[in-house]
Structures are given as C-alpha cells and as structure tokens.
Amino acid sequence: MHPMISIKGLTKTYAGGFQALKNVDLQINRGEIFALLGPNGAGKTTLINVVCGIANATSGEILVDGGDIATDYRHTRSKIGLVPQELASESFETVWNTCRFSRGLFGKPASPAYLEKVLRSLSLWDKKDTISMELSGGMKRRVLIAKALSHEPEVLFLDEPTAGVDVELRQDMWNVVAALSDEGVTVILTTHYIEEAEHLADRVGVINHGEIILVEDKEKLMRDLGKKQLVLHLQAPLSEVPTHLADYHLDLSDDFMDLTFTYDTKQNSTGITALLGELRSADIHFNDLQTSQSSLEDIFVDLVHRDQ
Q: What is the pTM of this model?
C-alpha cells in the first residue's frame, strides 16, 4: 500500500532568494497522526501550504493518495482538509452556512446528518445558527476545524490548531483528532505545545531551516534519545560536588540539597550502583531519591540546538 502523502525532493525558494524548503523527503502513512515540530520560521507552514496547493513548489514531487498535486489538482485537493493558523472565517455567516458552503465548494451533495455529526463532535451544535463573528476565539477555532471536515477529507492538516484555546477546549480537540484517526483519517499536526504531540502523535518529524532533520516513531524516539535523571535529596547541604565524583557530571541544586545524575538508558550499565557506593564512601547521605524520563520537549530542544 502506498503512503497517503509522498514528498520527494521538495524545494521552495521565494522571489527574494530565500529558500524556505530544502530538498524535503517525507512519507506519511495512511491513518496515522504525524506531528511536525520545529521552531518559528523552520518551514512548517510553508510545507503545509505547498502540499495544500496554497503555494507552488519550486521543484520536487508531491503525491496525495497516489495522485500528483500538480497534474491531478482537483482530485488530490478534494482529499485534503486544512485548518490554518489564522482565525479567518465568514464573519457574517452562521456556523451552519459556513460548513454547508464549504462542503458545496468540493462538489459534495448536501448531507445535513454528516454536518450535524461534525458540529456535535466539536461541541458546536448549539452554535450552529450563531454568526461566526459573535463567537469566542476558541469557538472560531472549532469552526475552522468543522469547515475543514465538511467535505469528508481523508487527510487533515492542523496548523497550530489549539493556539489561543483554553485547556478544556484543547482536550476536546485532542479527542476529536484521536477519533478521526480511528476512522482512518490521516492527520498532520503542527504545534508549539509539545505535550500535544507527545499525547497524540504516532510519529514525529522535526524540521529546521527548511530541512527535515529527523522522522521517527514517537515511542522509539523517546526510547532512543530520551535520558533519565536520578535526583537524590540530601540529608544535609553539600557546598560542592567532590572532585573525585567529577566523572558522574552531577548537578548540585541552588539550595545545595539535591544532586542530579543524568544517565543513558541504552548503556549496559547506568552507573547508578557505582555512584551510590561512591556517595557512601564520601559520607554523603540522602533521605529520598526519584527518577524522571526526558519529555518530547527535552528531546526536541536538544535536536534543534544540535542542528544550529
């Protein structure tokens, strides 16, 4: 089975000479949730705009469900729904008419039952007769998602979908995205909320300076690149780390009461047993200890800094 989206050798250079995308290769599988992460200006939105036909590629090939977006535009575009960053909507139209009109643009027959399902899933049904301009920012964001889903796309791009949305609405949207994936919709998500990607994504791609620097299964990424920390809560303040413990690269907290040891889970030996023995020999005692695992945010920051 071919991937839902196949991107090969994609470049985008603007008239002024700025190269926003540099030889991007990317395969996105059918039905997966793919999180595209990167700092501001990395090329995330440009990549989405090119795939969705909003901007033209300088070179390269993009296939959506096997169809070329350049030569089979109508077919491929009908398969894509896009939720942009900007809160642009038909301000003087009702929520219902906005979705109905968008569905009609793609030549879909009227389906009040389907639109009702979409609006109910986004907690918009009681707002269906409300003028869009009267809605809050969070509700307008929901309308954009409903509009993008109105023509029953097989691919949904969500460009910062929960920006400016409160925690409760964000959780509702996470549930909607998970439900769409369960129904077979391929979801591509860009977000500044790393916990969003960590919660939702099957795979993660990191883009920086217009280049894809990593694509990996989320669980494997966190397992391979994640590190663990052991925090020792000391019985008494420690003015400095003894020199004979320098090889452990311990961090002493500002209040001199905690020692933190970072270790690699992939190594045959973590060094914890040896460290504890060294601490006993140095007469350094602790009341408690705890471990923590690197988050996706820690890994993302590390990757981007490594790519500078």
A: 0.75
